[in-house]
């Protein structure tokens, strides 16, 4: 390790820095909220490359300087500029062997880097992992956030925007930072922690969503997409609408029991945009049939989608409605209405939805548009897990907090699907 000092004639001399061997990469965690561990300030934060503590400043009266003197730790990295300094002397350390630390503070990508995503990688513990399929730490009850972030990070167009873009708004910037860490091919550890993102979400949602209280992932996904659209929109368009927005025509008639002739009904028609489609599961049967079958009720996804064929009538309140999809998005989100609130708790519908992960025909304005499954968020005994299709490796993975494993696609539909994302097949 060498530092550069200029002599009285302005000629730079290189002096070797003696503290390179004290750096311990296993202690470094760049996922924590960037605040000083002593003052709790969030400005001018450095990380000690020996013990991993976050400390403010590097002047002679700063917390990092005091830490250097008291603990005999000398090498610090600035978390914003990624510059590395040696204290108490205060000179900048420039050494190629530290580039991996600078990269892991916050990975940066170009389009050429995407070719690295199909390779198996190893962390500092020699644990094998696949970029994009790193576990996310469940701080206490934030599994509903983890599955949504995993889901969005495998929407390829959205992922690429988050990896390549630079964002000034806090929420979008934190989502982008976490997705960049999930796809890191040079990670120090095969998992990430969402501390900084959860703090931002709690502030932006006014504590509606936070890490200590379980919430509905569909409610969170809806809030997140709308919030990010407001931060990203230009001329009322954004990557959110480019990926997920479609249009549906809704025809409605008031229910008038005293009239027999349907021709006397007044019909209203409107076209509405949507970011997701809600599908109603059939009620759970109270009794088994005579052959002791249908213990776990099942329904096909094609049957549920008949709601949008333009002819099937759905009664909502005092209206009868029919739905026709006029324009389908590149990525189609389904929400299965699995939970019903009553006076005491959320009642869960255990119905299994049957489908093929490789092909789905969606009726769109009289034509059939084909999709294939990319993401399946499922309910599992009070918490949530997610199945994702990795476009680079062409394999399916099951992720539940820190647990990640490859899974056969035939096993996916056996879970209680709650949210799905389907990718349009373009010919």
TrEMBL record:
<dbReference type="GO" id="GO:0016579">
    <property type="term" value="P:protein deubiquitination"/>
</dbReference>
<dbReference type="GO" id="GO:0004843">
    <property type="term" value="F:cysteine-type deubiquitinase activity"/>
</dbReference>
<feature type="domain" description="UBP-type">
    <location>
        <begin position="15"/>
        <end position="112"/>
    </location>
</feature>
<protein>
    <recommendedName>
        <fullName>Cysteine proteinase</fullName>
    </recommendedName>
</protein>
<keyword id="KW-0508">mRNA splicing</keyword>
<dbReference type="InterPro" id="IPR013083">
    <property type="entry name" value="Znf_RING/FYVE/PHD"/>
</dbReference>
<dbReference type="InterPro" id="IPR033809">
    <property type="entry name" value="USP39"/>
</dbReference>
<dbReference type="InterPro" id="IPR050185">
    <property type="entry name" value="Ub_carboxyl-term_hydrolase"/>
</dbReference>
<dbReference type="InterPro" id="IPR001607">
    <property type="entry name" value="Znf_UBP"/>
</dbReference>
<keyword id="KW-0862">Zinc</keyword>
<dbReference type="InterPro" id="IPR028889">
    <property type="entry name" value="USP"/>
</dbReference>
<dbReference type="GO" id="GO:0000245">
    <property type="term" value="P:spliceosomal complex assembly"/>
</dbReference>
<dbReference type="Pfam" id="PF02148">
    <property type="entry name" value="zf-UBP"/>
</dbReference>
<keyword id="KW-0863">Zinc-finger</keyword>
<dbReference type="GO" id="GO:0005681">
    <property type="term" value="C:spliceosomal complex"/>
</dbReference>
<dbReference type="Pfam" id="PF00443">
    <property type="entry name" value="UCH"/>
</dbReference>
<dbReference type="InterPro" id="IPR038765">
    <property type="entry name" value="Papain-like_cys_pep_sf"/>
</dbReference>
<keyword id="KW-0539">Nucleus</keyword>
<dbReference type="InterPro" id="IPR001394">
    <property type="entry name" value="Peptidase_C19_UCH"/>
</dbReference>
<keyword id="KW-0507">mRNA processing</keyword>
<keyword id="KW-0479">Metal-binding</keyword>
<feature type="domain" description="USP">
    <location>
        <begin position="134"/>
        <end position="425"/>
    </location>
</feature>
<keyword id="KW-0747">Spliceosome</keyword>
<dbReference type="GO" id="GO:0008270">
    <property type="term" value="F:zinc ion binding"/>
</dbReference>
């Amino acid at each position: 390790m060498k530092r550069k000092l200029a002599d009285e004639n302005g000629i730079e001399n290189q002096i070797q820095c003696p503290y390179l061997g004290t750096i311990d990469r296993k202690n470094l965690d760049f996922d924590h909220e960037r605040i000083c561990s002593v003052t709790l300030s969030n400005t001018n934060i450095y990380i000690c490359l020996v013990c991993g503590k976050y400390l403010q400043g590097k002047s002679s009266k700063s917390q990092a300087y005091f830490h250097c003197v008291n603990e005999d730790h000398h090498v610090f990295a600035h978390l914003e500029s990624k510059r590395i300094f040696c204290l108490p002397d205060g000179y900048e350390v420039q050494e190629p062997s530290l580039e991996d630390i600078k990269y892991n503070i916050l990975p940066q990508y170009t389009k050429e880097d995407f070719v690295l995503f199909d390779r198996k990688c190893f962390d500092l513990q020699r644990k094998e992992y696949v970029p994009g399929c790193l576990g996310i730490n469940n701080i206490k009850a934030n599994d509903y956030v983890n599955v949504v972030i995993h889901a969005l990070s495998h929407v390829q167009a959205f992922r690429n925007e988050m990896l390549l873009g630079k964002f000034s708004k806090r929420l979008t910037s934190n989502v982008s930072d976490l997705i960049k860490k999930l796809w890191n091919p040079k990670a120090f550890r095969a998992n990430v922690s969402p501390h900084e993102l959860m703090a931002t979400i709690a502030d932006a949602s006014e504590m509606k969503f936070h890490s200590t209280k379980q919430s509905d992932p569909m409610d969170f996904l809806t809030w997140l997409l709308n919030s990010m659209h407001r931060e990203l929109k230009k001329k009322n368009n954004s990557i959110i609408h480019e990926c997920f927005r479609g249009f549906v025509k809704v025809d409605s008639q008031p229910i008038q029991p005293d009239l027999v002739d349907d021709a006397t009904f007044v019909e209203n028609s409107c076209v509405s945009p949507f970011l997701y489609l809600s599908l109603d599961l059939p009620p759970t049967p109270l009794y088994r049939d005579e052959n002791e079958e249908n213990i776990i009720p099942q329904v096909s996804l094609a049957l549920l989608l008949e709601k949008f064929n333009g002819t099937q009538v759905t009664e909502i309140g005092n209206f009868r409605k029919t739905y026709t999809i006029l324009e389908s998005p590149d990525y189609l989100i389904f929400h299965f209405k699995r939970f019903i609130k009553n006076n005491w708790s959320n009642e869960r519908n255990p119905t299994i939805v049957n489908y093929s992960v490789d092909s789905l025909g969606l009726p769109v304005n009289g034509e059939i548009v084909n999709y294939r499954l990319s993401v399946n968020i499922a309910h599992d005994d009070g918490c949530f897990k997610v199945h994702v299709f990795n476009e680079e490796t062409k394999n399916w993975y099951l992720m539940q907090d820190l647990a990640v494993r490859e899974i056969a696609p035939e096993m996916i539909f056996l879970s209680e699907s709650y949210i799905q994302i389907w990718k349009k097949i373009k010919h």
